C-alpha cells in the first residue's frame, strides 16, 4: 500500500476539531508541497504547547496524508480521547516496560505500509527557556535508517501563545486570535548513513541532522538566531530533578535578524 486512505475515525475527528480551529486561530501554513504524495514517510516536529498536535494534524490533514502520532499509553485510556486515538490508529508508547519496543515495531510497520508516522523527537514539551528545540531522542532516526523513508522536518510556532507550556494560571489565552504557524521543510538527507551499522554514533549524527533541520525551520519562522548549543533535558534532570524553566509567561527576546529562514525512548 503506497498511501493510507483517510478513515472514518479521522474524518470524524476532523469534523469535530477543524471548525473551532478555524474560528479561534489564524493560520500561516507553508511547505505543504514537501509532504510526500505517496509512500511512507516520517515527520519530526518541535513541541512547545499542548495545542501542537491539533495544529500540526490540521495542517497535514489538508494535504490528504494523515499522521500517526506516537503518544504515551495513558492517553489511550482516557475516555473519548482514548477512543478516538485508538480509532485513528495512533501508536501507544509503553515507556520503561517490556512492551516499550512495540511502538518502534509499529512505527516501522506503518512506514513500510506507506503511512506517515509523526515524531516529537524531544520526547516532551521543550524546557528551553526561549522555547527552542531541545536535544532529540533517536527514535525518528532509528526508523528512518531502517526504512530509508524520507524525514520531513516540521516547525511550529504560535500555539504557545494560546496554550502556554507549564502555565499555572491563564492556561488558555485564546483572544485576541493567535496565528498558528506550521512550516514543513524538504527531506533531511540521511542517505550517506544507510549502509552504516546503526551504532550510537550513527544514530547521534542522524538525530542531530534532524534536529538541525527542525531548528532551522523554526529560526526562519521567528527571524531569530537559535542558541549555539541545544538544551539537554537529561542534563537538567541530573542536576535538578524537580526543576522546570518557567517558560509559561516568557516571550522569547528578539535577537538580531538572521536569514529569513511522542517519541520513543532510546
UniProtKB/TrEMBL annotation:
<dbReference type="InterPro" id="IPR002123">
    <property type="entry name" value="Plipid/glycerol_acylTrfase"/>
</dbReference>
<feature type="region of interest" description="Disordered">
    <location>
        <begin position="225"/>
        <end position="266"/>
    </location>
</feature>
<dbReference type="GO" id="GO:0003841">
    <property type="term" value="F:1-acylglycerol-3-phosphate O-acyltransferase activity"/>
</dbReference>
<keyword id="KW-0012">Acyltransferase</keyword>
<keyword id="KW-0808">Transferase</keyword>
<dbReference type="GO" id="GO:0005886">
    <property type="term" value="C:plasma membrane"/>
</dbReference>
<dbReference type="GO" id="GO:0006654">
    <property type="term" value="P:phosphatidic acid biosynthetic process"/>
</dbReference>
<feature type="domain" description="Phospholipid/glycerol acyltransferase">
    <location>
        <begin position="41"/>
        <end position="159"/>
    </location>
</feature>
<protein>
    <submittedName>
        <fullName>1-acyl-sn-glycerol-3-phosphate acyltransferases</fullName>
    </submittedName>
</protein>
<dbReference type="Pfam" id="PF01553">
    <property type="entry name" value="Acyltransferase"/>
</dbReference>
